[in-house]
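Can anyone check this?
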Amino acid sequence: MRLTAALCPPSGLLLVLFFCPLVAVLQPGGNKAEGVHSLLGDTDPDRCMRHHFVETITHPIYKCNSKMVLLARCEGHCSHTSRSDPLISFSSVLKQPFKSTCYCCRPHTSKLKAVRLRCSGGTRITATYRYILACTCEECS
């Protein structure tokens, strides 16, 4: 198999590589660590990410059939450093003496879902909830 410069640009490596996308990751001038992480995915098991779990939905008052649903939550740590900076004031009383900055693992995108519970007497009650599609680290408020 012969590779041409049009298919795989020269990477500055003295190895013959048959996998073109890998050559793009290893080219000089780019962030090699960032390229490898984007190719292989982040391997930190405690990073901010979505975790699935099953919950049983029951109505708190009416006698309805329960339903099990798949839910998701955001959990994990954010790589940003938290900090607290002192605030300067010309007042004798400082109500907020520091400005703190921290990052939290929160939902980035979600969608509204609904489940119908069958209740006694033939009535149906709808329960709604947000299903998390993706999580991200955002500044805490």
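Reply from J.R.: I decoded it. The longest helix spans residues 32-40.
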